[in-house]
Design a protein that fits this description.
2 helices, globular, alpha+beta, 98 residues
Amino acid sequence: MDKLKSKLKTMDKFSASNIPLPSYHGSFSKYVYTKKSGKTIDFYGTIREDSNFEIICENEYDDGIVADIDATIHNTAKKVCDYLVENYDGDVVEVVSC
């Protein structure tokens, strides 16, 4: 377990995109989306046809579950992040597919 934690810290340090991470769901990935402002959104998970998205924002009062994103159209982490940046008021910093 310590070896895995060390490996995950190393991966986060380099902010590589689409790194497979272990999870109880099987395959799990991380994607780092860079906004025009230079800030980033960390996206975790695998998008499925029926996915919803848990969002974490800079202001915790904006956190929540987004269920209005059509995962058949927004079927990549980049497309989901593009949608959130264009349509969501909160300053999103992390997204987890669920």
